[in-house]
């Protein structure tokens, strides 16, 4: 983007593909980290006199307009953060978008409606995607890719559109890639990886890859129970991906052979049912040993002994990557495990990268100062796929 700015953008229509896919609760943004992350790029372009057209997806609407997934709230928040009016177009490539863009003066910003209200955005058909990209291209003279959270998606606005316009990487993408490189090249050891989240199936690729790179792999979240079951323990009514057990057993064996330490919970916070995340009423959970989970109880967080164990495994690490919460942190009864890992990372002197929408949101909503962490990535799937060594369509298109 510095190259673009030095060439001059005054009066040019610059399409910024951002990732404003923020969590919403009844229409209110609960974590605006992704909006704040794109501010440097939007501000620099606006200050240089560009007519800035910001575009993003939000959630997973079905290729047609759906008010539940409108970007209006994100556009309003962007305006507040910029402390400037931001125009909002109620369609993406239709008359409203053209009117909004035509109405921009140099230095002004418009947000167009959710890209995924159009089937062409996410289509697997190259022609359909290409046609939608052509319609987006009509809105701009230059493309800036800055939606790091979506670079792993081969979508029209991420992959096809940059091919149709002069294209540049924004500040966020440059920063994210710079940081993630530190986790793939010349990593400082010990290198510990903390993986949480619900499904082990989402993490298979990264575990497979990290078995060659990391010194310690620390497991939390719903994934735990597939690991415990793979070791022969009963897991009550906890979340379980039975079909992943053979893969997990393979990883445990490979870790053993390679001298990679897999660290699993020794105790688990359990309850008879999944908590109501809205009411947040007290649920009176109990704590049990991980190898003695009672029938009918489900694990919803790592226990206090496990929190201490994980902290000890992070204390002397030189590099840490963390993706995925340790438990159902959205409910106060099950937030302690995630809080203890976040605290352990703050206490350690390791270079720390927190990756993933959920873990980043957890860090912020649990009241931690996000600036105290080495880097909080705006990309969940994107940072995982980067670490897996995959080619990311949105980065490949910019490098072209
Ligand atoms: C994310 O939240 O990881 C990104 O915004 C991508 O969203 P997606 O998984 O719906 O493509």
TrEMBL record:
<keyword id="KW-0808">Transferase</keyword>
<comment type="similarity">
    <text>Belongs to the phosphoglycerate kinase family.</text>
</comment>
<keyword id="KW-0324">Glycolysis</keyword>
<feature type="binding site">
    <location>
        <begin position="356"/>
        <end position="359"/>
    </location>
    <ligand>
        <name>ATP</name>
    </ligand>
</feature>
<dbReference type="InterPro" id="IPR015911">
    <property type="entry name" value="Phosphoglycerate_kinase_CS"/>
</dbReference>
<feature type="binding site">
    <location>
        <position position="153"/>
    </location>
    <ligand>
        <name>(2R)-3-phosphoglycerate</name>
    </ligand>
</feature>
<dbReference type="InterPro" id="IPR015824">
    <property type="entry name" value="Phosphoglycerate_kinase_N"/>
</dbReference>
<keyword id="KW-0067">ATP-binding</keyword>
<dbReference type="GO" id="GO:0006094">
    <property type="term" value="P:gluconeogenesis"/>
</dbReference>
<feature type="binding site">
    <location>
        <position position="330"/>
    </location>
    <ligand>
        <name>ATP</name>
    </ligand>
</feature>
<dbReference type="GO" id="GO:0005829">
    <property type="term" value="C:cytosol"/>
</dbReference>
<protein>
    <recommendedName>
        <fullName>Phosphoglycerate kinase</fullName>
        <ecNumber>2.7.2.3</ecNumber>
    </recommendedName>
</protein>
<keyword id="KW-0547">Nucleotide-binding</keyword>
<feature type="binding site">
    <location>
        <begin position="57"/>
        <end position="60"/>
    </location>
    <ligand>
        <name>substrate</name>
    </ligand>
</feature>
<feature type="binding site">
    <location>
        <position position="299"/>
    </location>
    <ligand>
        <name>ATP</name>
    </ligand>
</feature>
<feature type="binding site">
    <location>
        <begin position="19"/>
        <end position="21"/>
    </location>
    <ligand>
        <name>substrate</name>
    </ligand>
</feature>
<dbReference type="InterPro" id="IPR001576">
    <property type="entry name" value="Phosphoglycerate_kinase"/>
</dbReference>
<keyword id="KW-0418">Kinase</keyword>
<dbReference type="GO" id="GO:0006096">
    <property type="term" value="P:glycolytic process"/>
</dbReference>
<comment type="pathway">
    <text>Carbohydrate degradation; glycolysis; pyruvate from D-glyceraldehyde 3-phosphate: step 2/5.</text>
</comment>
<feature type="binding site">
    <location>
        <position position="203"/>
    </location>
    <ligand>
        <name>ATP</name>
    </ligand>
</feature>
<feature type="binding site">
    <location>
        <position position="34"/>
    </location>
    <ligand>
        <name>(2R)-3-phosphoglycerate</name>
    </ligand>
</feature>
<dbReference type="GO" id="GO:0043531">
    <property type="term" value="F:ADP binding"/>
</dbReference>
<keyword id="KW-0963">Cytoplasm</keyword>
<dbReference type="Pfam" id="PF00162">
    <property type="entry name" value="PGK"/>
</dbReference>
<feature type="binding site">
    <location>
        <position position="153"/>
    </location>
    <ligand>
        <name>substrate</name>
    </ligand>
</feature>
<feature type="binding site">
    <location>
        <position position="34"/>
    </location>
    <ligand>
        <name>substrate</name>
    </ligand>
</feature>
<dbReference type="GO" id="GO:0004618">
    <property type="term" value="F:phosphoglycerate kinase activity"/>
</dbReference>
<dbReference type="InterPro" id="IPR036043">
    <property type="entry name" value="Phosphoglycerate_kinase_sf"/>
</dbReference>
<feature type="binding site">
    <location>
        <position position="116"/>
    </location>
    <ligand>
        <name>(2R)-3-phosphoglycerate</name>
    </ligand>
</feature>
<dbReference type="GO" id="GO:0005524">
    <property type="term" value="F:ATP binding"/>
</dbReference>
<feature type="binding site">
    <location>
        <position position="116"/>
    </location>
    <ligand>
        <name>substrate</name>
    </ligand>
</feature>
<comment type="subunit">
    <text>Monomer.</text>
</comment>
